[in-house]
Amino acid sequence: MNERNRVPLPLAGGEVLAALLLCIVPAAAQPVTPPARYANVQLADPAKEQSARALMETLRCLVCQGQSIADSDADMAADMRALVRERIERGEKPASIRDWLIARYGDYVTYDPPLSGLTWPLWLAPMLLLGIGGWIARSSFRRRTR
Amino acid sequence: MKRFALWAPLAIFALLFAVVASGLFRPAEKVVRSAMVGKPIPDFALPAMVPGKPGLTSASFRQGQPRLLNVFASWCIPCIAEAPQLMRLKAMGIPIDAIAIRDTAPAIAGFLRRNGDPYARIGSDRASQVQLALGSSGVPETFVIDGRGIVVKQIIGDIRPENIAEIAQAVKDAR
Amino acid sequence: MIAEAGLAALWFASALAALQLVMAAIGIARGRHDVAAAVRPVAIVQGLLALLAMALLIALFLNSDMSVKLVVENSHSAKPWLYKFAGAWGNHEGSMLLWVAILGLAGGAVAIFERSLPERTLTATLGAQAAIALGFYAFLLFSSNPFARLNPAAADGLGLNPLLQDPGLAFHPPTLYTGYVGLSVAFSFAVGALVTRDVGPAFAKAMRPWVLIAWIFLTLGITAGSYWAYYELGWGGWWFWDPVENASLMPWLAATALLHSVTVLATRDGLRAWTIMLAVVAFSMSMIGTFLVRSGILTSVHAFAVDPERGAFILALLALYIGGALALFAARIGTVRAGTTFDPVSREGGLVANNLLLSVILGIVLIGTLYPIVAASFGVQLSVGPPFFNKAAGPIALLLVAVMAVGPLLRWRRDDAKAVLRRVMLPIGATLAAAIALLFIWPGVLPWAGLSLSAGLAVASVAPLWKRKLTRTPLFTYGMVVAHLGIAVSLAGMASDSAFTKETLVAVRAGEPARIGPYTVTLDGISPVIGENWSALEARLTATRSGSETILRPQLRFFANPPTSTNESAILTALDGQLYTVLGQPDGQGRWQLRLWWKPFVTLIWFGGVLIALGGALSLLGRVRRERRAAIRSAWA
Q1: Which of A60, A65, A110 minimises the CB distance to C301?
Q2: Higher model confidence: residue C401 or residue A21?
Q3: Do C614 and C543 share a domain, yes or no?
Q4: Which chain C residue shows the shortest CA-CA distance from A66?
Q5: Residue C455, Cβ neighbours under 10 Å: how many?
Q6: What pLDDT does residue A32 have?
Q7: Roughly how many angstroms between the first and final C-alpha of chain A, as a whole number?
Q8: In what helix (H) or strand (E) does residue C422 lie, and over which residues does it extend?
Q9: How far is C411 from chain A (nearest CA, A)?
Q10: Contact present, B151 and B36 (Cβ < 8 Å)
Q11: Which end of chain B has the smaller Cβ count within 10 Å, N or C?
Q12: Is the CB of residue A120 less than 8 Å away from at least one CB of chain C?
């Protein structure tokens, strides 16, 4: 597999900070531009911010080892947060933002697997398991002779 | 009936085992491929990155000739490794445009000076918005786009000498 | 020298495990009482040798012996001694050795303390334990040798992942592993009982304390892990349905069901097949969890970095043990005389519902965790995370809470539905009262249901104590009360955190205040700080609340070996919640980013977890005391 300059575990410290302390060699080169505005700034409207936050917690960070974009320090996650907030600000619905991202990255990008031919067993599982379990449990009960 | 029920747990376990075992040795997909392959390139208009080189718009990919779109940055180390391959592709007559991710003009200018400049146009994507719109998830990545603006192929990671032939072929097929 | 001694101890232990297995097989098959009797001492020595191997590995880490590969890859001479000690199990090989050491310890403990089982069944149990141990010894010796040498020795090591350099590492894995691996005893008991066809109340009474011990440690281990992740990872989350987290939850769900099932078998001779199956499933989940975490098959921040070859080895072991146990179950369980039956409306019925719901949740978590692998075999990459698990398992968990409230109030064997309704009037009233009160601050559907049910469960869990003489109530009844109360408390914490948490992201200069919940937080300044093996930028924050001030010092910490940085959050714990502060990046213009959370009642989550474990401990104490009293009485009779 060709090499990529993946951002490592989402804990990248800023080089500015490193310069203030003892010399620490950064593990991989990091971008030098500040993050997009809405990456780390909340929306003014609390309801919109709540809606944005709820969506961010369901979107997967593509360069991390299993985190949502709400929980990640990676730059790509920051840019995705900015994208989500900007679009919510403009009035777009969370579902449409998610669909836009799925159109670009596939179902991998959402932690909420969309119902499809491949995922219906997943979503049906709770009911199915309850049914099977209930049927098995019947045999434990005494047959009422009344 | 009861007989069947007793052996069911073992059967289910065997099934799960088969699924997991087959997954174990399949090469794990460690990268996220773009879902835009086969779809039209999204509309965008990026400002120029360095003086003297025009910025990049999606319209320039609908001029009838296939082009390469290289996603790179000055802070990206494998991009340095792939620069010679890009120069070779340019020498073969394949037009290459670029998007610079989260970068600054002086840094890009320095990068081009040190590693060569195969690009016809470079757009500045400060907030990775176009990168996200393309379904790209890191640098470097290269997209082959045909003359009608459809994304034909995505190469993830730096271009190696062995990839040159397949890229050239993809460009030829896209004509 | 120490490394070679450790390796030798491991070889001897595995040889003894083989001997133990052979002797147990001969003892049972040929009816050789003398051979069977000798299995006990062999099990004890085997356990001691495995423990010795672990102790020697720890010694190598404490001495920073850089001629041992594992120490070089995971330690550094400049580390504080606590992380050298705990770092011994902060990696794949070391933690696998810990696994095996606890497995040996558990087998040895059964050999020493188990007096009430008939000898044949005990021999079969110890034989099963030896069979499991053999597989894992082989895995260690042939595929994950912790004592491998590095020649020439390195000058110094690569250091321990900074995320692990925390007191949590000293506590969380050993506790969790004692839980996981302790369930192997239940598994071995189940296999032993199937082999000797001895499934009955005596068997259940013997197995129960072992299940309780494992379950208590597992509860504590998961609670500790959750709290550690919460304060360490810097985002205020305490559970992410991450594959590794699920790997610890699944054995816990099975063990909880087993715990309840074994009591029914012990006191009413019912649920024989359920109990045996759950004992097999519980440890199977432990083994599956071990596999998932180490095979590289699923991505997770918690996963060990291992390769598919090792994964294949564990998978083969899984096939052998789980497949073998399930086949044995299918072949033998029919010939085990069926236990007594009971009415649907009865304590047993409630416990069947409990088993059923716990198993369904277990199934959902398992399917959700494995589904990405299934999808990958069809060429599709997908992610299954909190939105799925919360939606799928949440409602079922709430249903379980309702069953938990009613269950202890039901009579054994047969109860009258109308009488039951009368008994649960007060808990239902509490639930409705909470539900109506909460309508005014509408917290969202799931939290609303969770908080209401939590109120009902809290009232219902102390209900068994009403109309009883408190001093004459058995200790294990108190255990049940405290454990169920713990669930109610934990649930309230979870719902409250999910519904009422407030978050603020600000970029402030020194002196600029930020408001979050009832607090005003002001940045006083940033200063550099040096630690034992790290340096940091520390923010001095003053948090004010109705007059009183507290200083908080969150840090951005930088490590040299390996070169990484971490966020050290600063948390202020008040009676009604926690103020969680994290220092972010500077914006280059003199402002610093702060992430602030106000989390009302979030500590209830872990306080509840501790209560649950405490309830288990009370139960254990109560049962052990009662067994001992009964043994004395029968000795005198």
Answers
A1: A65
A2: C401
A3: no
A4: C300
A5: 23
A6: 65
A7: 71
A8: helix C417-423
A9: 15
A10: yes
A11: N
A12: no
In DSSP terms, C402 is beta-bridged to none
pLDDT tier at C521, thresholds 50, 70, 90: very high
Q: What would you measure as the largest C-alpha separation in chain C, in angstroms?
A: 86
Nearest Cα neighbor of C51 from C177, C158, C156, C154 is C177
CA of C283 vs chain A CAs: smallest distance (Å): 20
CB of C270 within 8 Å of a chain A CB? The answer is yes
Amino acid, res. C250:
M
Chain B's closest residue to A100, CA to CA, is: B133
The model's confidence at residue A21, banded by pLDDT at 50, 70 and 90, is very low
Residue C407 lies in a domain: yes
Residue C404 lies in a domain: yes
The pTM (predicted TM-score) of the whole model is: 0.91
Contact across the interface for B35 and A2, Cβ inside 8 Å: no
Beta-sheet pairing, B56-57 with B45-46: antiparallel
B140-149, C481-490, C586-595 — which is least confidently predicted?
Answer: C586-595
Q: Is there a contact between C343 and A9 if contact means CB atoms under 8 Å apart?
A: no
Partner-chain contact C323 B7, CB within 8 Å: no
8 Å CB contact between B140 and B82: yes
Among the partner residues C348, C364, C537, nearest to A17 by beta-carbon distance: C537
Please, is C67 exposed, middle or buried when counting C-beta atoms within 10 Å of its C-beta (0-12, 13-18, 19+)? Answer: middle
Residue B28: predicted pLDDT: 64
Cβ-contact A13, C565 below 8 angstroms: yes
Same domain, C511 and C497: no
Q: For A27, which of C233, C364, C564 is closest by C-beta distance?
A: C564
- Counting residues of chain B whose pLDDT is more than 70, the rounded percentage is 97
* B3 in Cβ contact with C313 (< 8 Å): no
Residues of B within 8 A of A97 (CB-CB) are: none
Level-2 CATH architecture, domain A15-110? Orthogonal Bundle (1.10)
Domain that holds residue C285: 181-223+231-414
**Three-state DSSP class for residue B104:** coil
Q: Which of B3, B7, B20, B31 to mutate to test the interface with C (most CBs of C within 10 A)?
A: B20
Task: Report the DSSP beta bridge partners of residue C542.
Answer: C522, C551
Q: What are the backbone dihedrals phi and psi of residue B37, each rounded to the nearest 5 degrees, phi first? A: -65, 130
Q: With 50 as the cut, is the pLDDT of residue A13 above it?
A: no
Residues of C in Cβ contact (< 8 Å) with A74? none
Q: How many residues can be counted in chain B?
A: 175
Task: Kindly state whether C425 is in contact with chain A, defined as any CB-CB distance less than 8 angstroms.
Answer: no
Q: B112 in helix, strand or coil?
A: helix
Of C395, C414, C433, which marks where a domain is finished?
Answer: C414
CB B103 to CB A109 under 8 A?
no
- Say yes or no: C218 and C249 in one domain: yes
Per the structure, the count of domains in chain C is 4
C155 confidence band (pLDDT: 50, 70, 90): confident
C34 and C159 in a common domain: yes
**Domains and their CATH numbers in chain B:** 45-173 (3.40.30.10)
* A90 near B CB under 8 A: no
Q: Which residue has the higher pLDDT, C464 or C598?
A: C598
CB within 8 Å: A14 and C585:
yes
Partners of residue A42 in chain C, C-beta under 8 Å: 503-505
CB spacing of C382 vs A140 below 8 angstroms:
no
> Which partners does chain A have (≥3 C-beta pairs < 8 Å)?
B, C
Could you tell me where the beta strands, DSSP code E, fall in chain B? 45-46, 56-57, 67-72, 96-101, 121-125, 141-145, 151-156
* Structure-token pair, residue A20: 């203030």
Q: B17 vs C315: CB contact, 8 Å cut-off?
A: yes
Q: Is C525 on the interface with A (CB under 8 A)?
A: no
Digit-coded pLDDT (tens) for C182-219: 899 999 999 999 998 888 888 898 999 999 999 999 99
B137 neighbourhood in chain C, CB within 8 Å: none
The phi and psi torsions of C377 (rounded to 5 degrees) equal: -70, -15
